[in-house]
Design brief:
Layout (H helix, E strand, L loop, with lengths): L2 H49 L1 E4 L2 E4 L4 H7 L3 E5 L5 E4 L16 E7 L14 E13 L2 E10 L1 H49 L17 H49 L6 H31 L11 H11 L1 H6 L14
Antiparallel strand pairs: 1-2, 3-4, 3-7, 5-6, 6-7
Helix pairs in contact: 1-3, 4-5
């Protein structure tokens, strides 16, 4: 797997994890908050309903004005039990459905199927209604009453389902956005490395003088570029010394080999030598000739390699000529050549 894909996956995974945790927290708060508000509403309405009742003979009866109780009875499922858990009052909605009483829980949800009838109840596709039930004890007129109150919350359930769907779709879109943005960001992060790689490929033994430009920020890429440049410096130095050695060795070997060729040429012109010695000298002369040709090739090769980095310097001609005459002194004397040398000092 490419590094760019790995970085993209890491960015996407980190962002998705953060988004998922954030969504879970928000979802929990958004789901729990309506239930808390609904429980508070049920508590308040339970006290309101009890305020509209009159306790007589251990039973709760409605006041003469039942307008409030009738309006609330169409919206809330309501039962009141005395201390012996006997039913003392119930709302009109209890005629259509009976919800089980759970004294071990203060609030819970329950779904129940009811026949068609009450217009205030909204049913789902299975002809069921979901209720939020609240069970608690209220002291009223010196007695404790167990109150069970419930309210249909089909719309709330639908909103919660819509919320979950919206969050899921949002996470999917967020993941796609993270993948695209992560791939783009990974490309931007790796672009300097790609540039360094391209420049490193351009640098060869012919272009060892090139260097990777250093960035302004002394970050990891700056350190990498600096290390590569130091490596190229060492390589350039090694190649330079190698070329100089070949050039110097070829130049130094040229003169002795030339003298050897002149010696063999002079000796082979003599007629007083035995035939076997003449044959051996001719063979050695051919070897020296091949050596001379090899040295010339090396010298020409080093000359071509140094052509790009040639730096002209001043040469003392008097010293160079004096050295050449000294090296060829024996050949000049053997050839009976007379030379008159008149050189000034330090001729450049």
């Amino acid at each position: 797997m490419k590094i760019r894909n790995k970085i993209t996956l890491w960015i996407t995974g980190a962002g998705l994890l953060a988004g998922l945790l954030f969504s879970l927290v928000i979802s929990y708060e958004m789901i729990e908050q309506p239930y808390e508000l609904l429980d508070r509403e049920l508590d308040s309405q339970a006290h309101t309903l009890l305020a509209g009742l009159d306790p007589r003979g251990g039973l709760l009866t409605a006041h003469p004005d039942t307008t409030m109780l009738d309006s609330l009875g169409r919206l809330y499922w309501f039962k009141v039990f005395n201390g012996q858990q006997k039913l003392v009052y119930s709302s009109a909605m209890t005629n259509y459905i009976d919800l089980p009483l759970r004294t071990d829980r203060k609030n819970y949800n329950i779904s129940a199927a009811i026949p068609p009838g009450p217009p205030a109840l909204e049913r789902d596709d299975n002809n069921e209604v979901t209720f939020r039930v609240r069970v608690f004890t209220i002291s009223f007129s010196g007695q404790d009453y167990l109150v069970q109150i419930a309210r249909p919350m089909e719309k709330l359930q639908e909103e919660i389902v819509d919320l979950v769907i919206s969050i899921t779709v949002g996470l999917l879109l967020f993941t796609i956005t993270l993948l695209l943005s992560g791939y783009f960001v990974a490309g931007k992060i790796l672009q300097p490395i790609a540039d360094i790689n391209a420049l490193a490929r351009e640098i060869s033994e012919k272009t060892l003088d090139k260097r990777i430009p250093l960035g302004r920020n002394q970050d990891e890429l700056y350190t990498l570029s600096s290390s590569l440049n130091q490596m190229f410096d060492r390589l350039q130095f090694s190649f330079q010394r190698q070329k100089e050695f070949i050039a110097n060795a070829s130049h130094e070997l040229k003169t002795p080999i030339a003298m050897q060729r002149l010696f063999f040429g002079e000796v082979l012109q003599r007629n007083d030598l035995p035939d076997d010695l003449t044959t051996r000298l001719a063979s050695q002369s051919a070897i020296v000739f091949r050596m001379d040709r090899l040295v010339k090739n090396l010298l020409e090769l080093s000359t071509l390699e140094f052509k790009e980095t040639f730096t002209p310097t001043q040469v003392d001609l008097a010293r160079m000529l004096t050295t050449a005459l000294y090296e060829f002194e024996e050949i000049i004397q053997a050839s009976d050549i007379h030379l008159d040398v008149a050189l000034e000092d330090s001729v450049f």
